[in-house]
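Record type: monomer structure entry
Structure origin: computed from sequence
Chain ID: A
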Amino acid sequence: MRAYFVVAATFAAAIACGAATAQAYRWVDDQGRVHYTQTPPPPGAKDVKRKNLQQSGAAASADLPYATKLAAQNFPVKVFTQEKCEACDRARALLVKRGVPFSEVNVVSQTEADEVKAISGETSLPLIVVGSLHQSGFQEQLLNSLLDTAGYPSSGPNLPLEALRKPGPAAAPAPQPGTAEPSAASK
């Protein structure tokens, strides 16, 4: 009987955690960098804004397939980008097409550039981190391989971009798969 209560309590905690992931937070750290997360910001964060994705009409993480939730938990995706970067736009479009939740860091300061260099050993953008693996520049086949290895489904649940990442400036339309070749600068 005691085992039943342990299982029930564990199940209730899992449901509560699932409800908590329907929140999105925007906050600024002590160095002035803006962060977008699904977890509450640390103490001392400035300009904290919380958005309930379910109430806003955007799809919440509860709408994600189980395989996507599991992959996101075990192999979170973080993308380092910059403004007016075609390769960054294409990487973002591929993640959205596959329904992969991700956090995005817009590299605008030396601190962020140093973080990119520390992870990849180079300064190419985008830098896509999947769990402990990464890809510098955008190569569609390699990124798909990283996502497949992490267990992300090959096609997503057709969620809007806002449900998968922070809102940002309007991006250029995504090229059709297989029609655009990565530029030499993005490799």
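Annotation 1: Confidence is low (pLDDT under 50) at residues 1-21, 53-60, 166-187.
Annotation 2: The first strand starts at residue 23 and ends at 28.
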